[in-house]
Hints:
single chain, Jelly Rolls, isomerase, RmlC-like
Amino acid sequence: MKITNTKLKGCFILEPAKYGDSRGYFMESFNEKTFNELTGTDTHFVQDNQSYSTRGVLRGLHAQAGEYAQAKLVRVLEGEVIDVAVDVRPQSETFGQHVAVRLSAENNLQLFVPRGFLHGFVVLSDAATFFYKCDNFYNKASECGVHPLDKDLAIDWQIAESELLLSDKDKEALSFKEVFRER
Ligand SMILES: Cc1cn([C@H]2C[C@H](O)[C@@H](COP(=O)(O)OP(=O)(O)O[C@H]3O[C@H](C)C(=O)[C@H](O)[C@H]3O)O2)c(=O)[nH]c1=O
């Protein structure tokens, strides 16, 4: 397992070791001991999520607030996405900054999104199966979101806006400044 820092403290890109042979390949896609040693965290995931989306679907930017905040380890089982994590940790020096990482079944990369981040992704391939581990349970009442095309965040989703497909919830999401007005 290789780990790479991003410009956002605690947000890492991980690449599992892949063992190929004449049959195909094997990899440990996740190992708690290895993960915590490499990230220097004491993370225990409790819920796995999976979603399937066609090209242009954008899910996000979401987070759960307060005691139900979730760290996520995200990866793509099929297809390709641009995955985005936005730092909204109140005291962070990189508050409001984001990373955008191309994750695909091909490149086998994973992104660790710590608690205190907004998260979202857009599908670039014809379809994508997205899989992620969460270190806290789903709690609908704690859900919060920011519009993914927010002008202040200025995220480059690398796809024409005309191709995007958002849920009504995401279309109606507040702007970054409306959600974090006190900053
Ligand atoms: C997140 C979640 C949702 N649901 C139910 C609630 C709805 O009936 C249905 C679809 O939920 P939603 O439209 O919020 O799904 P996404 O738009 O993919 O949301 C996710 O999108 C971005 C990428 C994230 O990082 C979050 O994990 C999550 O917010 O699944 C559950 O039952 N459990 C869950 O953990």
